[in-house]
Automatic annotation (TrEMBL):
It holds the Pfam family Pyr_redox_2. It comes from the Bacteria. Its cofactor is FAD. This is NAD(P)/FAD-dependent oxidoreductase. Its EC number is 1.6.5.-. It comes from Nocardia xishanensis. Residues 4-291 form the FAD/NAD(P)-binding domain. One of its GO terms (molecular function) is oxidoreductase activity. Transmembrane segments: none annotated. It is an enzyme of class 1 (oxidoreductase).
Length: 396
């Protein structure tokens, strides 16, 4: 019987990892199944664009995985039982249970509502394609007349507010944040950001914590009510509750606790990559949820899976956080670099060049999914016997 590798999620982390494993492991020994809620690879980094009304390139996973032998299972994961090595999935035909020998958990994250009443019922978000499309439909309804309030002061809030303001010039866009807008940026980047918000006519309410969301209003902790025809909740991401319910050891924020090789600390046959993983980076701090982290954690997780299953030496990938690229509509952006303590450097790339760099990074990230070895040769590593693997561990 073949060794069954099941990959949950085909976003940046899962799609890259599955493609890479399929190119390195012998298909006589390994069977790789990918479960994903959508039949397409969704460029999550562009979902604010989709919400604002732009159409994204269609990227069917069948094409991304063409010729790899990967079995694609478009279905929703509803449960993981790490103790019994099973995954429950649901699709239009019903419920099914998959068994695995090795699991790669890469289900990403969703919008964090922080328990604020009314967010689930009344707010919109851009953390997944269905929710971005729901917001887009609402903005279409509003047409040229309406108020949009974006809640949050970090990357996604900034990108969502500026994209909507640029694409839907008739709408009155505001942003409410409990702290300062882009307060973590270096001085040059922050000045650039504030000028861009000014240019787009976005009203900024700093030090404003939204404590309740209703159908046409968002209410701050001090009782101030903001009329809003569409409240966009962009106040951070949280891992799907599936992880905490799986029996895997998780952090208080729901991320799965892993070792340096991206193995679950409680269930070493489960590996984790992308937003779902809690891992300490090279700077001694938790690696932030980001596309770059999805890339480095995937490389580390796949190296560990190949090493653990074939007896090969596991190479180390640097888990580094170097900065953030932020779009401000389609023609402007900021690329803020950070130092070894994750503090913003004083200089940042700004303006049209930063927008072009971001666009190139996004294209490369999407391209890498169907070219995960970046042109380096593929291999056909065989499954080592349990004895060979344990001898290898002893030798190491
Ligand atoms: C609007 C927006 C803009 C962003 N911009 C940036 C940016 O500029 N730079 C940056 O570094 N990061 C950015 N991010 C964050 C970045 O998108 C994530 O950190 C990255 O996508 C994480 O990769 P992942 O593979 O862990 O998760 P994802 O890319 O989200 O992939 C998870 C996959 O799992 C699938 N899935 C989820 N739940 C289930 C389920 N129950 N069953 C089956 N399938 C499921 C999803 O459909 C998806 O395909 C942005 C995020 C958003 C929402």
């Amino acid at each position: 019987m073949k060794h069954r590798i099941v990959v949950l999620g085909a976003g940046y982390a899962g799609a890259f990892s599955a493609g890479y494993l399929a190119r390195q492991l012998h298909s006589d020994d390994f069977e790789i199944t990918v479960v994903n809620a959508e039949p397409d690879f969704v460029e999550r980094l562009r979902l604010h664009q989709l919400a604002a009304g732009q159409d994204l390139r269609h990227r069917p996973l069948e094409q991304v995985f063409a010729g790899t032998g990967i079995r694609l299972r478009p279905a929703r994961v509803t449960d993981v039982d790490a103790g019994h090595r099973t995954v429950t999935v649901a699709d239009g035909e019903g419920i099914d249970r998959l068994e695995y020998d090795t699991l790669l958990y890469a289900l990403g994250s969703t919008a964090a509502d922080h328990g604020v009443p009314g967010v689930r019922e009344h707010a919109f978000h851009v953390a997944a394609r269905p929710s971005a499309l729901r917001l887009r439909a609402r903005l279409d309804e509003l047409g040229e007349d309406g108020r949009v309030l974006v809640v949050g002061g970090n990357l996604t809030a900034i990108e969502a507010a500026t994209e909507i303001a640029e694409s839907r010039a008739g709408l009155r866009v505001g942003l409410a944040t409990s702290g300062e807008l882009g307060g973590w940026l270096g001085p040059k980047a922050r000045r650039h950001l504030l000028r861009a918000f000014d240019r787009f006519g976005i009203t900024v309410h700093e030090h404003t914590t939204i404590a309740r969301v209703e159908e046409a209003v968002a209410v701050a902790a001090d009782g101030t009510a903001f009329a809003s025809d569409a409240t966009v909740w962009a106040a951070g991401f949280a891992v799907h509750p599936i992880a905490a319910a799986s029996g895997l050891e998780v952090e208080p924020n729901g991320q799965i606790t892993v070792d340096r090789q991206m193995r679950s600390v409680s269930h070493p046959d489960v590996y984790v990559a992308g937003d779902s993983a809690f891992v300490i980076g090279e700077n001694g701090r938790p690696l932030p949820m980001s596309c770059a982290s999805a890339g480095s954690t995937s490389m580390q997780a796949t190296a560990a899976i190949i090493g653990d299953r074939t007896g090969r030496k596991i190479s180390t990938t640097a888990l580094s956080y170097v900065g953030n690229h932020i779009s401000l509509g389609r023609k402007d952006g900021i690329f803020q670099l950070v130092d070894g303590d994750a503090r913003s450097k004083s200089w940042a790339l700004r303006g049209r060049t930063a927008a072009r760099v971001k666009s190139a990074i996004l294209e490369t990230a999407a391209w890498s999914l169907s070219h995960p070895t970046f042109g380096r040769p593929s291999h056909k590593y065989r499954l080592a016997t349990a004895r060979e693997r344990s001898l290898d561990v002893v030798a190491a």
